[in-house]
Design brief:
The protein is α+β, with helices and mostly antiparallel strands. The protein has one domain. Helix content is 32%, strand content 22%. InterPro entries: PPA1309-like (IPR047681).
Length: 187
């Protein structure tokens, strides 16, 4: 599956979001599998450098150079000290962003099975988890999803069984529920 699944040429803002989400997914991929949930604020790099010039010392030189010629370039700022929560939905429901944040992104791992696998799944939660963990068609997937206040979205998906940068798929709506949950954090 090709990362570029849309036929229209992306706008500068859409391209900046795609690049930011890909970069965040690659960053998290460099840490290995079985990781935590990562949440990022997305800010326009040029505007952030204008208001906080000392940020240039913390960013890669390439990001600073790119921001000088591409005003839509985005920087992801990893969020530390996230609120305690039992689920991703609960975590996202507790987040809100100041107006200075242009968007938000989350990187999370999930296990997926084909729909037919759920027909034989036990009802008891612990047994269901064990059933799914041991299912022969189980796939581990890392999903990186980003949204902007202006409405654009991008999702990048990497499967553990095809753990290569050139095998990462992408589209604006690959994970629609996650896209909507992230949009709600920006409202």
């Amino acid at each position: 599956m090709s990362e570029e699944q849309t036929t229209a040429e992306p706008s500068a803002r859409e391209q900046a979001l795609r690049t930011a989400v890909r970069d965040l997914e690659r960053h998290v991929a460099s840490l290995g599998w079985d990781g935590q949930v990562f949440v990022f604020a997305l800010v326009r790099t040029a505007e952030a450098l204008e208001t906080t010039p000392e940020l240039a010392r913390e960013l890669p030189e390439e990001a600073v150079r790119t921001a000088a010629v591409e005003p839509e370039h985005l920087t992801g700022i990893q969020q530390e000290g996230l609120p305690d929560s039992d689920t991703l939905e609960e975590l996202l429901g507790q987040l809100a962003w100041p107006d200075s944040v242009d968007g938000a992104a989350v990187v999370v791992e999930r296990m997926v099975v084909p729909p037919e696998a759920e027909s034989g799944m036990p009802k008891e939660p612990a047994a269901a988890v064990e059933y799914l963990m041991n299912h022969p068609d189980r796939q581990d997937v890392r999903m990186a999803t980003g949204v902007l206040r202006t409405g654009e979205s991008w999702c990048a998906l990497r499967s553990r069984s095809h753990d290569f940068d050139d095998a990462v798929a992408g589209s604006p709506d690959a994970v629609p529920g996650l896209v909507e949950a992230l949009r709600a954090t920006l409202a």
